User: Fold this.
Amino acid sequence: MKGSVSPVSPKKVKQVISFPVEVIESFNELIEEKFNGNSNSSTIKQDAVVERILQKNPKITKDELIDKHWLDVEDVYRKAGWIVKFDQPGYCESYDAYFVFEKKTKIKRIVTATLEIG
Assistant:
């Protein structure tokens, strides 16, 4: 008879993703190509980055990119200093999924509130 067992806790589960070079290269290239100095950001359609990765390495498939979470680059780029957002259509919505990479600014945003006493 085996001893007792309990469910694994989220703290003990670590997901480590190792990205192929082509993935990071493709994101880097597109961030530079799509950079808008006015907004300090780059907006990249998911399909564009997938196409770029597949051009660089035809042995990689779109299913593999998704199954192995190779498009989940948000945390890697956040650690590199970007504010990263990803958006995709929800139920009954129709638009292209996209990433936004925004430069972090050193200016702190100050929120002010007005209190009305009456």
Q: What stands out?
A: The first strand starts at residue 35 and ends at 36. DSSP finds four helices and four strands in the chain. The helical segments are 21-34, 46-56, 62-67, 74-79. Residues 23 and 95 are 23 Å apart (CA to CA).
